[in-house]
Design goal:
It is a single chain. The chain is an alpha+beta fold. It has 11 helices and 22 strands. The protein has a 6-stranded mixed sheet, sandwiched between helices. Strands 11-15-16-10-17 form a 5-stranded antiparallel sheet, covered by helices on one side. Strands 4-5-22 form a 3-stranded antiparallel sheet. A hairpin with a 2-residue loop joins β4 and β5. α2 runs antiparallel to α4 and α4 packs across α11. The longest helix has 24 residues. The protein is elongated, with a radius of gyration of 23 Å.
Amino acid sequence: MKENATPMTMRDTEYKKLVEPYKDEAFKAYKELVAIDSVNDPSTVTKEKPFGEGVDKALAYVASLGKTLGFEVDRCDGYATELTYGKGEKTLDIYAHCDVVPVSRQDWKHEPFAITQEGNVLYGRGTSDDKGPGLACLFAIKALLDKGRLDGIRTRVIFGGDEERGSACLEHYFHDLKKGYPTYGFSPDADYPLIYGEKSIYAYEAVYNIELDVEPFAWGDALNIVIDKASCVLKSRIEEANILAKRFAERNKDIQLSIEGNVVKVIGIPYHGSMPWNGKNAALYLLKFLGYLYDEKGARDVFDQYISGKGEAFRGEYKDNDFDCTSYNVGKVVYDGSQLKLYVNLRFPATILKDDVIENVAVNTGAGITCLGGSDGFVMDKNSSFVKTLLSAYQEETGDKESQPMAIGGGTYARESRNSVAFGAQFPGRDYRMHGNDEFFPLSDFYDNMQIYAHAVDSLVKMMKEEK
């Protein structure tokens, strides 16, 4: 996929001039934060470091940076870093995150934990999700702080450490630390012009009894990523496998299947779990292959049920006025020799009841289904003064009045709070390969986001002061 990194056309406004002196310092911090490998690491988890060494290092970096920039700092028991400025009865929250999804280094052309710049393109894990946008917002707020434009309102910038795995960070922040919900809030972790609604997101386990003459296997790193690699050791039918592999490869040209000795391997295409149809799930294709090799219809049924990612095969394609589809991403697969277990990331319209969706899967797939938890989505009033203020800031800085607020399948921190939405940082027509290989963020987009966020925060502060 070719990078779309042509600089956006931005207006020459007061906010562009306001953030200009902060660009070099912001870019320096950006490079330093991306260089920290902040994938959740269970092997290094402690009470003080609930998400492991790497995430804690990133949160500590933000704490040190925030102190240097003039914010009050709270490490929040290691779950998040809160940067606060000002006092007042009303609070404006910004939610970003320091944790990132895992990487397969061999599949990256660039070093994932460093910013590699090629022209206007910055490569690195977290450049767009969400270290770059979070820092763009932080330095925009710093520019306003230095001009005295935040006075009278309490502003909190919260960098969490567990957004990619379930947001235990904000759960701790709001429910254990009793920090209190904001008057308004937004997360720079989605798309422009604005996200007014998010699907409900849950996970479930699906258990099938099938017989495959292979060694036990486990595939997948995270539920919200399309599995891009799967392999297993065959116990029998090796010659038949080599013959079948040729026909299979001819009929499934979007994936790579290979056999070395008695090991069969499939390479697919990773993608964000909210849109699994944009990837190619290696696990599902390998199950299909094994289903034909060992004449196991159950394995082929799993492929048919989940390959589209939208649930049509089992009548699970829910829609409503705000959301146009439902998604089912098979993010992990485990086989112990008799039971096949799928772990599925499920996203559906916020108006649909979770129990109804789960029951439908159980009834129409023939699998044993167990819900593993999740969170309900939301829909914000598109005509509220809050939404209109953010939309206006985006439009006035970019001149883009055609793009409209969206309801999405991706989950952001906005669902963990109240009176909050996701606002940027991905411009229309961009695809930064979030969660994919060689994730990137254009340098011009980083600076343009500083400009937009300065306008947005300034306008929200004015609005909050005027509201009774």
